[in-house]
């Protein structure tokens, strides 16, 4: 007697598995090369193996975007791809009568969303969700979308409008290095991993010209400031101020060359994101003046010194913790940092 499994015999179950395996092999060995399948809805049968084999085949020929119906699948090339995000490519997708018939690209999604807004009599919000695991390319994709809209949604009709459009574009693009400096860090899987979520809102007028933008952040990994996993780093901004500060600023912020901080692991690693001047210039474009910037960097320097403070073990947990003798000696030398913060932010008596 055949064993029954969920109302079906084990024999029929085995037959269906054999049939599925044959279908998979027939599809994978078909005449059409897998890298030519630009939409995963064309995969038949749809299994984890067939989908991954198609994506692998496209990746091997430097094709990193693939449609999956109305969803776009992006693979991180982990290398520069010349021309893939150039202004010429943006204009090609923006000017195409049917951009969805061009090769799959993030600009297809951006252009379709933009046209959805333009085609409606009453403006209706459009949303693009960028999701994926660490290192998948979410930050880069968001940059590309913002650059695309900064280009296609700033069509000036006069010199005055042109200058306004330029300022908006510059501010939108300069929000990226600031957010990444203060919210991104080097992790085991990604040198520029976003440790927070963000909702970016681009605002258009009835002529579909960009008039402004707003960014909301959430779930910032604040614990990283005081605790970093082995082989990982703190937020980029701490390394930027230590590596990029001038001699005068080092004296002012008590950050002498060669100083070590327990909250600054792996300082010998040099990343592209360690450029302090890029962050400062971006902050200026966003309206954060030099004086305010200096106060911000003083606070950051103070946090680094605070991380070096060591407390002695206490037998009575109900009593205040006492500093170790080493911390007391270092505290006398750095007390000026604490008072400087108190004066600048009126947090002292």
TrEMBL record:
Pfam families linked to this entry: Myosin_head (PF00063)
InterPro entries: Kinesin_motor_dom_sf, Myosin_head_motor_dom-like, P-loop_NTPase
Positions annotated to bind ATP: 132-139
Top-level lineage group: Eukaryota
UniProt name for this protein: Myosin motor domain-containing protein
Organism: Marmota monax (Woodchuck)
Family label: Belongs to the TRAFAC class myosin-kinesin ATPase superfamily. Myosin family.
Gene Ontology BP terms: actin filament organization
Residues spanning the membrane: none
GO molecular-function terms, A-Z: actin filament binding; ATP binding; microfilament motor activity
Domain Myosin motor: 35-349
GO cellular component terms attached to this protein's record: cytoplasm; membrane; myosin complex
Keywords, alphabetical: Actin-binding, ATP-binding, Motor protein, Myosin, Nucleotide-binding
